[in-house]
From TrEMBL:
GO molecular function annotation: glycosyltransferase activity
Species, as recorded: Catalinimonas alkaloidigena
Matches recorded under InterPro entries: Glyco_trans_1, Glyco_trans_4-like_N
Name of protein: Glycosyltransferase involved in cell wall bisynthesis
Keywords: Transferase
Length: 375
């Protein structure tokens, strides 16, 4: 079987795009197991490069001004696919996917779709009229002809089953590896304890950063001693920085910008608590990265981490994703720092990743349950 992962982008893990990172890891581990796998990406001409030197074959195709119209190069590649190919789309609301699916249907080539939280009910409330029309005329057909929908989080599995009750939905989470080398240099002033941290794309609404800022402000007013450090970048960063100043916490919230690889993991490892207050999420890779270096978690239920935190006791789950609950959780960590319970959380966080999210086990499930490959 020939597996084709398709993504909007260049599958470069050194970006703020979590979908590209996940596809990069999937293909890397599959290729290492000897599978015939390629990654195809649709990108503007200026972005047709990948800085990560992937081990797997990577083909990048130009996007066109009329997104439903595929480039000639991509059309030729699709018609050249062998009969035993299996296509795997990642993310949703991408016009090229609908056009590609028509060719796949013509050639009787099966495909799977991993929405990566794109169909979350909260997400669908953004531009609702457009999305409703788009789903009716395009996305519903893409879903209907798919072999299955692949959910990466337990809450996403529920959402997909409710939205598309006639379609098969399969839950297999993202994986996390330990292929990094921690460095010595960190930029946190260590006098600021505890060190709360966030890592990810700076998107206010989805990541709940407005809630986080309000929560930090309340925490500080109630005598909280720690600071918050942001790793990441995005179009909303200036607005978040302004909000921190408006709330009077500009000196307690620090923006470190985008980081990747070992440098990013070194900074995360220096945190005392990792915070994630998303309004919706598939399953955050940043949360797994933090847990892999023994950083306890303070996260919303919407991250999909509740069953894991309940089982492993590796952090605190926000009872509600509100500024009040965020402030309360931060104050609780103020009191927990250096206690036996906190140290148990650190150990449990890494244990959770090792037992639930090891890439070898995840890849085995993906190969067997999505593609029917016993490898």
């Amino acid at each position: 079987m020939k597996i084709i992962h398709f993504v909007l982008g260049n599958a470069d893990p050194n970006t703020m795009n979590g979908v590209n990172k996940s596809v990069f890891n999937l293909a890397t581990y599959q290729y290492a197991r000897g599978l015939d796998v390629e990654v195809w990406g649709a990108v503007p001409l200026a972005e047709k490069q990948n800085t990560s030197n992937p081990t797997f074959p990577l083909r990048l195709f130009d996007t066109t001004k009329l997104r439903f119209k595929l480039s000639k190069e991509l059309i030729n590649a699709l018609y050249a696919l062998p009969e035993n190919a299996f296509f795997h789309f990642h993310s949703v609301f991408i016009p090229e996917y609908y056009a590609i699916s028509l060719i796949l249907k013509e050639k009787h080539i099966p495909y799977a779709l991993t929405p990566r939280s794109g169909y979350n009910p909260v997400s669908l409330k953004k531009n609702p009229r457009f999305k409703k029309v788009y789903i009716r005329f395009f996305e519903s057909r893409l879903v209907e002809d798919a072999e299955l929908l692949h959910a990466v989080g337990p809450l996403e599995e529920e959402d997909l089953a409710a939205l598309f009750p006639k379609q098969r939905v399969l839950f297999i989470p993202n994986g996390q590896d330990f292929n990094f080398t921690l460095q010595d240099k960190v930029t946190f002033p260590m006098k600021s304890k505890p060190i709360f941290g966030f890592c990810g794309r700076v998107s206010i609404y989805q990541k709940g950063l407005d809630l986080m800022m309000e929560g930090v402000a309340q925490y500080c007013k109630q005598g909280g001693k720690g600071d918050l450090y942001f790793i990441g970048d995005g179009g909303d960063r200036p607005e978040v920085e302004k909000e921190a100043q408006r709330l009077g916490i500009g000196d307690r919230v620090h923006f470190l910008g985008a980081m990747y690889g070992d440098a990013k993991m070194t900074q995360i490892q220096a945190m005392d608590v990792f915070m994630h207050t998303s309004r919706w999420e598939g399953l955050s890779r940043a949360i797994l990265e933090a847990a892999s270096v023994e950083v306890p978690l303070l996260v919303s239920r919407e991250t999909g981490m509740e069953p894991y935190i309940d089982q492993y006791a590796c952090g605190l789950m926000l009872p509600e994703n509100t500024p009040e609950a965020i402030a309360k959780g931060m104050l609780e960590f103020d009191a927990l720092l250096e206690t036996p319970r906190y140290k148990q959380m650190q150990t449990a966080a890494k244990q959770m990743v090792e037992q639930e999210f090891a890439w070898d086990a995840i890849i085995r499930r993906v190969n067997q349950e999505i593609y029917g490959i016993q490898a």
